[in-house]
Predict the 3D structure of the following.
Amino acid sequence: MKSDAVQLMNTQTPSDSETAASIEYHEALRVRFRNVRRHSTKICDLLNPEDCMIQSMPDASPIRWHLAHTTWFFETFVLKQIAGYRHHDDSFEYLFNSYYNTVGDQFPRSQRGLLSRPTLAEILSYREYVDDRILNAMSDSERFDHALLSVLELGLQHEQQHQELMFTDIKHAFWCNPLYPAMQPLELPTASVPEQRWIAVDDGIYQVGHSGGQFSFDNESPQHRVFVEPFELSNRLITNGEYQAFVDDGGYQESAHWLSLGWQHVCEQHWTAPIYWTWHDGQLCEFTLAGLKPFNPDLPVSHLSYFEADAYARWCGNRLATEYEWEIACERFREPACTPELRVSQGVVVHPTHDAAWEERDQSARSSACPSDFFGMFGSLWQWTSSSYCPYPGYRPPDGALGEYNGKFMCNQYVLRGSSCATSARHARLSYRNFFAPSARWQFSGIRLARS
């Protein structure tokens, strides 16, 4: 299993001759393990125990399940590979396995909200049990070799994916509550809309995909060449106000804007606007993690399905970029200045803006640190592309249980690029391929237009 797991990711392997570097790598991972695990519980601290049990739809999971499943991952793929490890509770293998058929059967996903036991306190105790044993095992570099370190890194990236889901799942659950409770009872950020410009990119052959050297998921490789025709990409995200014009123009009543399957969802699900827009006391409002707030036309429009993003692009005479165009235009990754870890610790609501860097940098600093002409590529909203989620040329999923992580989902999904206001620190990168079903509306997803 260890060798299979290493295939799933690209990581920088410390040379055996560089002992000092290996020790530094080992210790850095220990620190990161503590920080990532702590962030999950800090998200939980924003909620009541009752909040952590609810499941609002089959695609979402209770907060307590996220806390347990991410722990199960470390126990199953790291600790159980170490001789002498004693399971915390054998029943957890069934309760908290998500979709790993190679490992065993799973409790039905749609029924996770029915589990009142184990309690939240017991799940937090389970986390402590596993964390203590991970950290103790890491003190022995011979037992905790590089193969296990690679699986540990994968587990941290996996937990960060679930941290974002914790925000989006509880937001959907709170939206279902007519009281519109707030996870973060704070004010929304103010918005300043950058002037829209189109950034031109020449035709040519470009390298795309992960170049190696640091962590990436297997679906980001192999790096390969693609040819693109000349295109232009918008420098910013579409705003609430711009999308409202589509709604007011009858966009949800005109089938010509929609893909056939998208129109079917509009009709069957009675879509009339983005999921979190609602009228309250005669005023248009948007539901946020800070509760129900007055509609702000200047903020980026969020929580759109692929179908809605595509329909809007058609309505205004443009299109969505392919994932290759997005990556080529972006050119390089920039870590947002305001990550969800900082937002939670500093009392800032997790909500998209046009550029996360604006919140902590003055104009001169932004000009020198962020020479890109784009706003909100990272740290605001995931951006739908027109690319189906499929394997890159030469891709082969690894053998074993961890080979189920990505490859088997390469069907009926679309790729999103960038990262969102809920994406954890050091989780995003230029080659990252997020993916969801085209009808998914509960993620922090938005629109960046392209044109030929």
Summary: The chain has two domains: 2-175, 198-451. Residues 198-451 form a domain with the paralog of FGE (formylglycine-generating enzyme) fold (CATH 3.90.1580.10).
